[in-house]
């Protein structure tokens, strides 16, 4: 793995009403030996970030990093507004100061890296998703720990993503129990590989302290397929409830009328972040 020293973003991220971030956004170029490619890793630092090491911050790792902070890089020009949301919640004392890491996907290889199973729907040959947990554990996380004051341990470490990024988030929890204490799973593609992830979840017991699970009712735009997608999420909820996850540990949001879009995931992000980190101290 090649670790490239961070370069502070010189571009001001803004929307119509002014800057969306006053905390620092830094960009790293990560050359992966596991995937044999290069991508950006985006690191959002909270206001008044203490670089001395005296303060250790919780870290939340999110997939599809280019969709999180900046509409200029986000799919369809709509980002999740992760930085502005985190800054507001920190300022209001609803969550602790924290570091948020956006891991870019690699475009044409996104599906291959996010799908861990052989799949005919979507038709995909050579899935590489089973390497993704190793990529996170041995390449992404060491990069962040080298340059930033990150608090270690599952309770201080979260992981999240949407769509196929939500699928690989869930798979990573199964592959790396005890590494992540908080999961943010939006509109997960549970149907991939004939719903194999649900089969594996039924046998799994080492769930993290808190899980946020979100889904819209119009994700596909086809009534029958939308119903199946919601039912899959309800099945996952039942699996998690059977594993003794209480309301304090599991929050499920079925968002009426919401679509499969960055806008929908961004709209639910404040509630997800607050649920995952409220009552959490640095």
Q: How helix-rich are the residues, as a percent range?
A: 25-40%
Class by helix and strand content? Answer: alpha/beta
Per DSSP, the total helix count is 7
**Beginning-to-end CA distance, first to last residue:** 30 Å
Describe this structure in words.
The radius of gyration is 18 Å and the shape is globular. Residues 1-22 have low confidence and may be disordered. Helix 1 packs parallel to helix 7 (262-277) and helix 5 (192-203) runs parallel beside helix 6. By secondary structure, it is an alpha/beta fold. Strands 1, 2, 5, 6, 7, 8, 11, 12, 13 and 14 form a 10-stranded mixed beta sheet that branches. It has 7 helices and 14 strands.
Q: In terms of topology, how is this protein built?
A:
Blueprint: E1 2-3, E2 7-8, E3 14-15, E4 18-19, E5 25-32, E6 37-44, E7 59-63, H1 82-91, E8 99-103, H2 110-114, E9 119-120, E10 123-124, H3 132-147, E11 157-162, H4 164-175, E12 182-186, H5 192-203, E13 210-216, H6 223-242, E14 250-255, H7 262-277
Parallel strand pairs: 7-8, 7-11, 11-12, 12-13, 13-14
Antiparallel strand pairs: 1-5, 2-5, 3-4, 5-6, 6-8, 9-10
Helix pairs in contact: 1-7, 5-6
């Amino acid at each position: 793995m090649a670790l490239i020293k961070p370069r502070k973003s010189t571009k001001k991220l803004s929307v119509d009403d002014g800057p969306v971030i006053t905390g620092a956004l830094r960009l790293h170029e990560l050359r992966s030996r596991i995937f044999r490619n290069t991508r950006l890793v985006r690191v959002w630092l909270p206001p008044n970030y203490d670089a001395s090491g005296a303060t250790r911050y919780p870290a939340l790792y999110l997939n599809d990093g280019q969709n999180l902070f900046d509409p200029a890089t986000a799919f369809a020009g709509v980002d999740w507004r992760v930085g502005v949301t985190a800054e507001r919640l920190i300022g209001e004392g609803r969550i602790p100061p924290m570091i948020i890491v956006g891991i870019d996907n690699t475009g044409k290889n996104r599906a291959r890296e996010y799908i861990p199973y052989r799949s005919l729907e979507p038709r995909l040959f050579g899935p590489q998703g089973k390497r993704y947990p190793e990529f996170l554990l041995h390449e992404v996380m060491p990069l962040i720990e080298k340059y930033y004051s990150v608090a270690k341990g599952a309770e201080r470490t979260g992981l999240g993503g949407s769509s196929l990024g939500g699928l690989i988030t869930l798979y990573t929890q199964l592959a790396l129990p005890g590494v992540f204490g908080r999961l943010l799973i939006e509109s997960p593609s549970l149907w991939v590989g004939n719903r194999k992830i649900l089969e594996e979840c039924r046998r799994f017991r080492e769930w993290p302290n808190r899980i946020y699970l979100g889904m819209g009712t119009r994700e596909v735009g086809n009534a029958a397929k939308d119903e199946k997608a919601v039912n899959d999420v309800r099945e996952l909820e039942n699996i998690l409830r059977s594993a003794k996850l209480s309301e304090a540990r599991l929050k499920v949001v079925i968002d009426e009328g919401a679509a499969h879009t960055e806008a929908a995931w961004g709209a639910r992000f404040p509630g997800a972040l607050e649920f995952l980190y409220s009552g959490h101290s640095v």
